[in-house]
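Researcher: I'm preparing a figure for a lab meeting and need a structural model of a single chain. I don't have an experimental structure, so a prediction will have to do for now. The sequence is pasted below. Please return the structure as tokens so I can convert it later.
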Amino acid sequence: MFWSFICLTENGGFRAKMYDITQHPFFKRGIAVLVLAQSVLLSVKWDVKGDVTFPLATMSVVFTFIFVLEVTMKLIAMSPAGYWQSRRNRYDLLVTSLGVIWIVLHFFLTG
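Model: Understood. Here is the structure written out token by token.
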């Protein structure tokens, strides 16, 4: 499947394909749903000894990695200079970076 994706992008260019994907309404809606789901996770009280803490933390990590993938795809699609022009993209980059820092602090320094 990956090879067919590469073959499809040779004519249109990899950057153009990334741009088409990141600008597609389904992609944007999917990311918006994940942002809402991540926000719901913030509203849940996390008890260190609770049974649901580990699954909630795992879901948060998965969402953060998807957001890292989104940022990477947009950086490829728009180039770093083009990506940086949008305030929304800068905010997304900041929040995603803070999420990665949280992952490092939560999982690697506490365990």
